[in-house]
Amino acid sequence: MSSLPHIIRKEFTQISRNKVMIPLLFVMPIIQLIVLSYAADFEVKNLNLAVVDFDQSQSSRQLIQKFTASGYFTLVGNYTTTEGAMNAIERDQADLVLTFPLHMERHLLNRQGVEVQLLLNAVNNQKAGIASNYGQQVINAFNSELLSGISLPEGMKPITTDIRESYWYNAELDYKTFMVPGILAILVTMLTAFLSSINIIREREMGTIEQLNVTPITKSEFILGKIIPFWVIGMVVMSFGLVIARLLFGIGVAGSFVSLYAFVAIYLVAVLGLGILISTVTETQQQAMFITWFFMVIFLLLSGLFTPVDSIPQWAKALNLINPIKYFVEVMRSIMLKGSSFADIRTHFVIMTGFAIGFNLLAMMSYRKTTG
Amino acid sequence: MKQFLAFVKKEFRHIFRDRRTLLILFGMPVAQVMIFGFALNNEVENAGVVVYDMAGDYESTTLINHLDASSYFFVERMAHQVEDIEESFRQNKARLGIMIPADFGSKLLRGEQPAIKIVSDASDPNQAQVLTSYAKAIILTHVRDRAQIQVEMPIVQAVPRMIFNPELKAVYMFVPGVMGLILMLVSAMMTALTIAKEKELGTMELLLVSPLRSAHIIFGKVTPYWALSFLNALIIVLLGITVFDMPMNGSVFLLTLSCLLFSLCALALGIFISARANSQLTAMLVSMMGLLLPTILLSGFMFPIENMPMILQVISNIIPAKWFIILIKGLMIKGSGMDMLWMPMGVLVLITLVLSVAAIKNVKPRLES
Q1: Any chain B CB within 8 A of the CB of A254?
Q2: Pairing between strand B73-78 and B47-53?
Q3: Complex ipTM over 0.90
């Protein structure tokens, strides 16, 4: 193992010699963590409401007032025709349009049900669903006020239940709490995956691999020598990220630091092994980069970072079984937010160890010390 | 002009010689669009529920069956204590816990209000809220059905109508976003390496001593990739329409123009990165790490821009993918015309111009030591 320290030193020298690398490796991920965590927020507020009021009655005005008082809606326009309101939706000036029919109040006073129309801009399906829900809630509240003045027929009991909700681990329902561990996981993964996947192919393209090949270094020393420097960089960025999460976002590690770091340690070995494997089977840096990017984007978008993993189709769930990022994001969130113990996530550990061994064995096997 | 054409020809040769990269350039975006179009779903379905049923009577059992039968939930396990719910949360096996009190059935029939408790794993706040509201709706409907009140009531009923996307399909959100993401990154990465590679291999000197001007070098590099990017964009749009049933309500000409404009913008960004970077490695790190997450997060692909803090809303304006997504949604889904789309188009033109000028300025006529 005597040549191992030398090759590790060589890698570090190579990285620190390039003046742009240090800010790229350490500053860019941290800036992204800080900025992007604020960008991710599903909470829908400030929905722009337009109104078409054919009734012009006290009831309609009351209901509009209820909408604006709910805090979810801002009244942006009063239109006399449905076309005008539709146009506002197309221009993205309004998210939804509330239309009151003629004689609404008269029907209500006659104890008849009435229908008001909610037109929603559904290009964003999720937002439209939530907006419709909020609208429903406001109208329900309006209804119960209407009904409270009316007594039930003789002998009829009100059968209802009282539902209490509580939100664990994140009582304020702060989306940043959810995103910060996930984004940190992605940044550490991207950094280490790209660095390692381009590394060997770069030596080959520049011709410096020949110099390494003629040294007495063994294959496993070579792979280890490539992995260790990037592993250290990954760990350092990870630690920076955890400090930022604690200091800036107030998100500590609810579970054990040891489990968290143990998992990250194994995970980085797996990702670096995959990167080195890609590096040994490609012909140019460009190819290596595109292939890494391909896997990265697929793994990233299926990882559950942004969208729930429960609702993806079966075949995608099968694909997710070999998605390292999915396991990492899940572990980060479980340990940091829920305080999951080693026993809770032991399957994650077992699978990740399998990945680490598998990828590195493959990398070692596909690396040839001879050229041509 | 003759020199310029010769240069473009050289660049084309470079690209076509490397069959593997070419395959990657076309195969990967198609594979990605397919995977995401079919797999990405922002709806919440199939969530595990842990039920702690302290009543165990007819009323509670039918309620649990009701929950299990909905597409949103499946009963993951029956708990015997509150800790069981917590354990399932910690192991990521369930997202919701429902606690039914021992006197549930008896109270319900007596007309009193039994208290049901819903706890949720709010480490994902969005999912927790949505699931809680679904569970509430199911419980309330179940209880109301038991009550069988059938009296005409003077109530207001909301009739929601979804415009542009009546079935609330998630692909309407994801296909434009994935198009923007993939085109942006593929185009930017393709060119990001070109000049950096010439520098690294030492062939940049050859170009610099040739009579070609900086602008020629830039446009010569961009032209072949522009053709490739545009072809890529076309394939992705066709996939969106044929495979994912995206509508095409606007003008095909404007859509083509938008794709051309956006790929040019991404290529210009790539060239700019390439001209600044001192090696392929830096060019790659900047174009991949610097572009991937911002393009996903700040473009309105995943998260609504209007929800972001003011400063991020301002920053989002310089993300080209944001404008492209607006254009694609406007043209394909809403069928908007130029009267609505001149703004995003204009901004894209502006960004492209700025990037091109910056790129030309940064291709140095002389190499540094």
Answers
A1: no
A2: parallel
A3: no
